[in-house]
Design a protein that fits this description.
Layout lengths: L44 E6 L2 H11 L3 E6 L2 E5 L7 E6 L5 E2 L15 E6 L2 H10 L2 E3 L4 E5 L2 E10 L5 E7 L14 E10 L3 H11 L3 E5 L25 E7 L8 E7 L9 H5 L7 E11 L2 H10 L5 E6 L6 E8 L5 E6 L7
Parallel strand pairs: 1-4, 5-15, 6-10, 11-14, 15-18
Antiparallel strand pairs: 1-15, 2-3, 3-4, 6-11, 7-9, 8-9, 9-10, 12-13, 13-14, 16-17, 17-18
Length: about 350
């Protein structure tokens, strides 16, 4: 959980792991043989659906100083200055039918995407400014420690659309040199989903997509009661375990990651995965919708996905850097998180 900012050489849990004598048995699936990655570049964009694109965009344009690279009456695409991937693509939808995940959804409610993850500076000031723009923190800012590193983390929810962002501020160790410079909020480097079964979701990314592993670990709890950025009640953080995995298309990348979290022991969770599986390319729900990847040959991607028993579908959907509709290939993770593959020649950033 919440370890996207960690380096693999450091302890990789956001809270101290269970002591060896209490460690449940587990198998390290990251050591398995896997196929080559289906692509080798980071995700191009993440699409958010909302009822007011300008209202949602203000978080990135006013706090993050993101640039507008495309705008139409019902869509806007933003990027962190100087970047060519990790775009935020926002679309307005008419006749709203609900949310992918409601704004009050919890970490043990599964399905769809939970949050877009970005690095941050002066996190307390960001929380204050974001509140004015309609974003509320899920918890107080949490302090996490591992090895020499200390982090502040908070999850913010946009009350109108249900979109969530998860912000990380390093207090000790510096941001990796390869990571683009930023003033307050960085480009997205990870996206998180809450899953019914961590290993089932991990199999999809590691075996079907062939992605590399950044982190895969045992069930973990806190050593003492403390604030969990995901909103797990403080009194349960020592007894409710979570399982985490993080993957990326190419080892060594500082961005383009996908994270999966399974929160165990909570019996009242809901499954929102049917919300994001429905109406590919034309959903009327609000929140985090789909991550777009670029591939040189969609037919090869289609054949590869089908060889693993998946059911990808070709969809005519707006591209993230143009209002023109492009033919994309969509596939769903086991918990409904949607991925769209786009021909690498179909859309170019300005």
């Amino acid at each position: 959980m919440l370890i996207g900012a960690c380096q693999p050489s450091a302890p990789t849990t956001s809270h101290p792991a269970l002591s060896p004598d209490k460690q449940p048995e587990w198998t390290d699936l990251s050591q398995r043989i896997k196929p080559d990655p289906i692509i080798n570049s980071a995700w191009k964009s993440v699409t958010l659906l909302t009822s007011d694109k300008d209202d949602l965009a203000r978080f990135w344009t006013e706090i993050g100083q993101y640039e507008t690279i495309m705008e139409s009456p019902d869509a806007i695409t933003l990027r962190a200055p100087g970047t060519s991937e990790g775009y935020i693509h926002i679309r307005e939808v008419p006749d709203i039918s609900g949310y992918f995940r409601p704004p009050n959804s919890r970490a043990w409610d599964t399905g769809c995407y939970w949050s877009i993850m970005m690095r941050a500076k002066n996190l307390a000031s960001i929380v204050k400014d974001a509140r004015v723009l309609g974003w509320e923190p899920l918890t107080d800012i949490a302090l996490l420690e591992f090895g020499p590193s200390r982090l502040h983390i908070v999850v913010l929810t946009h009350k109108m659309s249900g979109t969530r962002v998860q912000l990380y501020e390093r207090l000790t160790t510096p941001v990796p040199e390869a990571f683009p410079e930023f003033a307050r909020i960085s480009r997205p480097f990870n996206i998180m989903q809450m899953v019914h079964d961590r290993d089932t979701a991990y199999n999809f990314f590691q075996q079907a997509l062939g992605f590399e592993t950044f982190y895969y670990g045992p069930p973990t709890t806190s050593d003492v009661p403390r604030t969990s950025p995901l909103g797990i009640p403080v009194e349960l953080t020592t007894s409710v375990p979570y399982k985490a995995a993080i993957v990326f298309p190419k080892a060594g990348m500082e961005w383009g990651r996908f994270e999966m979290i399974e929160v165990g022991g909570m019996l009242d969770g809901q499954d929102f995965s049917p919300n994001c599986r429905a109406d590919l390319g034309a959903s009327q729900r609000l929140g985090i919708y789909v991550v777009t990847l670029q591939a040189p040959d969609l037919l090869r991607v289609d054949a590869r996905l089908k060889s693993y028993g998946l059911s990808p579908q070709f969809v005519e959907a707006p591209g993230a850097v143009s209002s023109t509709a492009y033919r994309q290939l969509w596939v769903s993770s086991p918990d409904g998180a949607l991925i769209a593959f786009e021909d690498i020649k179909a859309a170019r950033a300005p």
